[in-house]
C-alpha cells in the first residue's frame, strides 16, 4: 500500500514537472528574429544592392541571371550583427 502511494506521489510530481517544462517551452521567445529585425537597418547598403539586382533580374527573359550573391551578402551582414548579441542572450 505504501509503495503504491509513493508511486502515485512520484507520478504526480513528474506530471507537474512535465507540465511546467511544456509551459516554459510555450512561453519561450525566439530572440534571433527580434535581433535580426533590429540589425536589418544596419545593413541597408547590401539590401539596396540586392533589391537593385532583383529589379534587373526581373527584366531578364533568359532566366540565366540571379541575385544569390547579393542575397547572401545581405544576410551575412545581418548575421554578423546578430551573432554577438545572440550569444550574449544565451549566456
UniProtKB/TrEMBL annotation:
**Topology with respect to the bilayer:** Peripheral membrane protein
Under Pfam families, the record lists:
UCR_hinge
Annotated GO CC locations: mitochondrial inner membrane
Kindly list the places in or outside the cell where this protein is found, as annotated in its UniProt entry.
Mitochondrion inner membrane
Primary location class: mitochondrion
Which branch of life, at top level?
Eukaryota
Q: Which UniProt keywords apply?
A: Disulfide bond, Electron transport, Membrane, Mitochondrion, Mitochondrion inner membrane, Respiratory chain, Transport
Please report the stretch or stretches of sequence annotated as the Ubiquinol-cytochrome C reductase hinge domain.
30-91
Family affiliation: Belongs to the UQCRH/QCR6 family.
What is this protein identified as?
Complex III subunit VI
Taxonomic lineage of the native organism: Eukaryota, Viridiplantae, Streptophyta, Embryophyta, Tracheophyta
Amino acid at each position: 500500500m505504501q509503495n503504491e502511494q509513493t508511486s502515485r506521489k512520484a507520478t504526480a510530481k513528474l506530471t507537474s514537472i512535465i507540465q511546467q517544462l511544456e509551459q516554459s517551452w510555450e512561453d519561450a521567445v525566439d530572440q534571433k528574429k527580434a535581433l535580426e529585425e533590429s540589425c536589418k537597418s544596419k545593413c541597408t547598403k547590401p539590401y539596396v544592392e540586392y533589391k537593385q539586382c532583383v529589379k534587373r533580374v526581373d527584366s531578364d527573359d533568359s532566366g540565366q541571371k540571379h541575385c544569390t550573391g547579393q542575397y547572401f551578402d545581405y544576410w551575412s551582414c545581418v548575421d554578423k550583427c546578430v551573432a554577438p548579441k545572440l550569444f550574449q542572450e544565451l549566456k
